Amino acid sequence: MRKSLLVILIILALTTSNVFGKAILDTGNLESGVIGVEYNNNSTKRMKVMIEKDENKYTYDMNNKKEDFSLQMGNGSYTINLLENTEGNKYKVVYQDTVVLSMKEENSAFLGSVQMIKWNSSMKAIKKAEELVKDAKSDEEKVEKVYQYIINNIEYDYDKISRLTSDYLPQVDSIFVDNKGICYDYASLFAAMLRSVGVPTKLVKGYAPDVKEYHAWNEVYIGSKGQWVTIDTTVDAQYNTANKKVDMVKDSSLYKKSNEY
Questions:
Q1: How many domains does the chain have?
Q2: Residues of the signal sequence (predicted)?
Q3: Same domain, residue pair 104 and 140
């Protein structure tokens, strides 16, 4: 997957009220580590959401009037900024608010449906996940069953790379139905299917061994072991196609993480 173009956000103005009159933070799923951002705007200008905690920040394109985002940086105070494009790569803050996250379960933020891993129970992929794990007696079994399904049924889409835009987002059911995708798609589908059956799963971006370009993979929480493990379904699907055996769990020290969602 090609690395998204770096957007330099130049903050021109700061206000605490939305210039469009309405900006709403949906805190209904806050205890699960998810914040909803909704705005009422008929403008065609590009919008972004920037989420900050301590010295860390994540920036997202606002592709719809309402989007859900992960608060994946742990409990504490988060600043939510809504940004409006002014020209080129310049943005101004048009709304800002603060929320305090206090999750009872620290891994809850990696179970919900969010912008990059958008899923619901009516999706074919999610129904398949439920079917696959119905007899599973542990999280390890759930992970293994979903993993095997993906590496045996999803092919790498080499043609898709040339058509990607910088704001591309995976569509879980389209990937599932088409049976193909790029690394970002593999990681989103795997995360959605596992999250839907109660297994905390991260979508991770960065650099991986034997992969020249910016890459996406997953980290999955195995409750019985109390640890996160690294799984790369993109690479393993290609090894599987070549009839080469490979371990599902990777050496995490070989993967260089840039961001996690």
A1: 2
A2: 1-21
A3: no
Taking only the tens place, the pLDDT of each residue in 117-139 is 999 999 999 999 999 999 999 99
208 phi and psi, to 5 degrees? -125, 155
Q: What is the pTM of this model?
A: 0.90
**Residue whose C-alpha is closest to residue 7's, from 38, 46, 36:** 46
Q: What is the DSSP string of 24-70?
A: EEE-TTGGGTEEEEEE-----S-EEEEEEETTEEEEEE--SSEEEEE
Domain range for 81 is: 10-110
Neighbouring residues of 93: CB distance < 8 A, sequence distance ≥ 6: 11, 13, 14, 15, 81, 82, 83
**pLDDT tens across 225-236, in order?**
999 999 999 999
Task: Fill in the amino acid letter for 179.
Answer: N
Kindly tell me the number of DSSP H helices and DSSP E strands found in the chain: 5, 15
